[in-house]
Amino acid sequence: MSDTFFSGAPHWTWFIILYFFVGGIAGGACFLAAVLDWFGGPEDRPVVRTGYNVAAVGAILSGALLTIDLGQPLRFWHMLFQSANFPAIMFKGWSPISFGAWAILVFGFFSVLSALGGMAEEGRLQNPALRAVGGAVRGGSGLAKVVGGVAGLLGVFIAGYTGVLLSVTNRPIWADSPWLGALFVASGASTGAAALILLGLRRGASEQSLARVSAFDTKALVVELLVLAIFIGSLGSVNRVWLSFWGLVLLVGVVWLGILAPLRLHLQRRPVASAAKLVLLGGFLLRLATIFASEGVDRYRVAAGM
Amino acid sequence: MAEAMGFFTDTTVCIGCKACEVACKEWNQLPAENGGIRELSGDSYDNTRRLDGIHWRHVRFIEQFKGPYDGRWLMMSDVCKHCVQAGCLEVCPTGAIIRTEFDTVVIQSDVCNGCRACIAACPFGVIDINPVSGTAQKCTLCYDRLKVGLEPACSKACPTDSIQFGTITELRTRAEKRADQLKAQGVKAALYGADSDGPLGGLNSFYLLVDEPEVYGLPRKPQLPTRNLAKSAGFSVLSAGVLGVLALVGLRKRRMDQVGGSGGSN
Amino acid sequence: MGSNMAECHPVAFRWPMKAKLNGAKLIHVDPRFTRTSAVADLHVPIRAGSDIAFLGGLINYVINSKRWNSDPFFKEFAVNYTNAATIITDDFKDTEDLEGVFSGLVKFSEPPFWPYNGLEGRYDNATWQYKRTPKPAARVEITVTTAATGSTTKDLIAKRAGPPFDDLVRSLKPGPAEKDPTLENPHCVFQILKRHFARYTPEMVEQVCGSPKEKFIKVAEMLLENSGRDRTSAFAYAVAWTQHTYGVQMISCCALLQLLLGNIGRPGAGVMALRGHAAIQGSTDVPTLYHSIHGYLNAPSALRPHETLRDYMAAETNPTSYYGNLPKFLVSYLKSMYGAAATAENDFGYDWHPKILGDHSHIASFAAMADGKVKGMCCVGQNPATSLNGGATRQALRQLDWLVVKDNWLTETATHWYLAPEVKSGEVKIADIKTEIFFFPSTQIAEYDGSFTNTQRMLQWHSFAAKAPGDCRTDSWFYHNLAKRLKKAYAGSKLPRDQGWNNVSWDFDPDAGEEALYPGEISARKVLREINGYQTADPKQHLKGFAELKDDGSTTCASWIYCGCYPAWDQNLTARREPDPPGVPGAHLKWGWAWPANRRVMYNRASADLKGNPWSERKRWIWWDPTFVNPPDPKTGKAVPRGKWVGYDVPDFGATKAPDAQPKPDGIGLDALSGTQPFIMRADGKGWLFVPAGLVDGPLPTHYEPHESPVQNPLYKQQTSPVHKVWAPGKPYNKLAVVGDPKFPYVISTYRLTEHYLAGAMSRWLPWLAELQPELFIELGKDLAKEKGIRNLDWVVVSSPRGHIRAKALVTDRIGVMHIAGKRIHHVGMPWHWGWMGLSTGDVVNDLTAWVGDPNVSIHEGKAFVCNVEKA
Fold first, then answer.
1. ipTM of the complex
2. Touching chains C and A? (3+ Cβ pairs < 8 A)
């Protein structure tokens, strides 16, 4: 019996699940965008810009979701500054939620810059101030690459730290395996790629770009499946928690619909959009199942067999 | 810093009167759940069910019977353990959770923003949101009373001295004596959390139990949440590395192919 | 036994737990495995209502045990300090002779003017008396100077002798009782009780009580082992020993056992009555009861020879115990009642004092109410709509013209007219209820000054902590102002019956300079001063103790037993809070004040042996110090011989009466007792194993079945107590189950929980308490649950002949099946705190209970009756 069964559920539900999902996509998409920004060709620019946009919107959305989830939303800044000692910085390197808060802020900053740079590249900025900022980091410029690269690295972090955050608790499932962060990184990569595929189609991305992203997605899905298997294996006896509705979601929703089905579609070279949609669904269900399966454990009763 | 203060709860003399619960609620002005209108839990005489933001004391009732009248009924007043190494304090991103001069762990309600990281971090399930304040709350070991030299409300109210308040040094001596007395009577008595070399550096609210910790809803070996940090981060980096390589190699290789194939038309 | 102390007296339970830490063993004998059982060393299940069989079994086991017969302590104690050696009249017939009843049983006919005594039979106790040698006729030898010397009681009454009333008291002295210190005489108390309890074998205990034989024997052995010179055992009981048709006999049986074990009058011994919280003890000391006046004197009664003051004294005075001073208590009480109007000429206003007509107890009054014989009722701090056969009680309430409810909340009693189950179901129409109900909001205990008397007879003064909100007023405010208005209403009336009101002394308004807590509030200190008493000529001269009381009207004292609690105008001893330091035995004489005379252990002369030495060093409490130099008598100035009772406590004995002192031949009061008779309130100075007078239902405890029982009495042909009470017999609202009624096969007991208080007015409205036990439940065993297909938390219907209610099932092994008289019987239990008002609501469990009760004290049988349980 794991000692994690005696802890309390933090009521991290819909806002947090959405955040984990959105953050994962944003982070994954940003990372891929940065890679393509650095190493891709001109035909990849639409995908790069889409990625930065997804990242920027995702970062802002993430911040908003996290804030409204707070019991006291107006005190969101307490995570960044010492409330009694403003403007002294509030930062705990060993607390994922603390460095995560900073990471989102910085990620947001860089991804918005990159997105503005992308918009400037497209000439879509009207506001003079924004145009000035965007112009400084115009897409394709050296500075933009640096900014985008930073955003991309932070993106990986954003996608993965949420899993680490869950592991750095005492809750069933989450704290019972060190693989959740890795799993979320993989899922962030696959869903980020899927988001790029879906949005890229509409934003005039080249077929080559999409094919490459799609190929990457296939690999990411394989990695994800592998990590998921390791994760489940590492849970050991805690796995009996999956003997619930959420276990079914994990098996059917995540493994079957979210990983195996899109893999099959990819391998059959069927339309990438449907595979991407399934990947997104699977990514969402992965968060849903891992969060709710743990949230639903009624403390010690399950553990004590009562 | 003053001497470390805390509770020693001798569960063998707990009579389950719940005076601690009521005294706590009265002193700390905690609301009743749903204004006091509730349903019977059906779990022995325990209608409190858990520690949370409005229940800072919780008396557990454990019926262990083999047949009619044949068994025992264990009771235990549970509370925040004021761990020497506190998981809640460790993860709290706002600095709301502090260690006081009495070596107790207190959540400052005006700093906490209700992120709930501490709830998941606590290995004992002590903390939860108080719906009135919207912030995480738990036992403060009556910090306000300690400040003016009073003992906490619960131990003051406990009629049988099941809950004892004092300096940790003195309480540990007392607890060991009591455990030895019980052992001499053939009772399987054990102290939980009284060892500063034990889990979490010892608990400043520790217990005398006569059954396994799990029976009382206590983890056998409570741990800090950050025990997972390095590993989890490492595997994440590993995963990110693999994916990064895949991305770099995959995306870059195509480009090289393309360059080779089309002669660099860009 | 008879108590769930940890749950119902959790604060006092601190001390048993401390004792346990010091090595004491706790035994809990109870139908349920409760929170008390949880911390006891041994729990023994027992069927509710069978405690006399259990205790009788212990008595039988003890007196036949090797230890009791080999350690001389036990016989020494029994022969000298109890009436074991006393010989009973030859005419006495025991239950052994009469198949379960005693000699003297006669039929009772209800008097037409008050047919609510609930009795079918009663005992004439003439044959239960001590065998006595004739009175010594040598009265002429005695130097007495009053004219009454040699007169009979009748003459003295006719001559209106006294005050002083000493001759009247002296004339009541009977001849000495015959004794056999060898305890061999077949008519001596010891032999009678030995025969009486011979059938209470361990096997029989198992049959009757359902208690496993091995566990019973373990209890007996533990008690024996822990009693004697060096050790003492104590019993604690509460309402689970009183709420029976033979509750007084249960307690009596325990006292008998404790006397045999030498466990009375000694530290760590005794029979501890765990009375209700706050001031239940106070309410019997300074009674709100119908049958007694202050200090446990019987209320003047129209049914007894109480015609005049002297008749009352003759009937009620026990000449050879401390009660020989009754005339002093009574006259001082009457002076308190009627003040200056009470004079020797008008017998201190005795004729103005109301007299009772019969049983005016709670149920009797409600039975009369149901018959339309009661016009109005002041219901103060009580919630009868949820008590004792609730359906019948509410039917009675509906017959009232007016009803005053004074409480903290609108209780069930205040709202029964529109929310009672029979009204909601349409069975009773609101329009048909003519009662006018007045509600007075009440203060809570922390909102006024006053004293509590706790279960150790200790008065503790308390000051208000906060002012009550709004128009909330105290109960004393209510009665004070009602009395003032009544006095005004009767003023000028010349009718003889109104003279009591016209002459009653009523001066409780605060004196000038003392601020009233609320407008029109009394001075609580003034009330306690009146209770303590003072010199009539100068009310500022307080009495220092009841030894100062006089029978000539020169002292005024409302309650003699409280005399001394306020020994000077500005000295309120009840407000003391000085505990003994650690490491001493801890009589805590400077904490509050305990009646009588601040004694903490009553009859503590028994803590020393015949010579006045402690029975053992370990159990030292008070002892005779023969070298003590006494000051000269302050009144006479004469020298007093050396020697005094000293120790940790205030001696409950003549302070300078030597152990070898002999009774004075014509002495009354304590002068009639020797230096070795510790039980100074008893006529023979001894603890009564056999009770010749005072109990109406038998001189020895005898096991009877509860009125409603699933089995025939396994011990006797007589099923129930032959003199127990059944009020409103045959009425549709008080239907009763027959023995072994198959419609109601289960034994049920009702009880309380730590989390709630009585009928709930102080707990069910309070969110913090309501959430702790939020709903009514029934505790039932797993076997019964299986038989009936009931799962934990299922709704069930519980029914008795009086009604049916719904509750949630709490299925547990803490209660269950028992094997009684060859039958397998399920025992269930329900807490009774609920009603339809408040935050935590539930059905009224007392809708199941019956109007049957104890003949001595008229309490109902709520602890043992029968019911049925079905899945809802």
1. 0.93
2. no
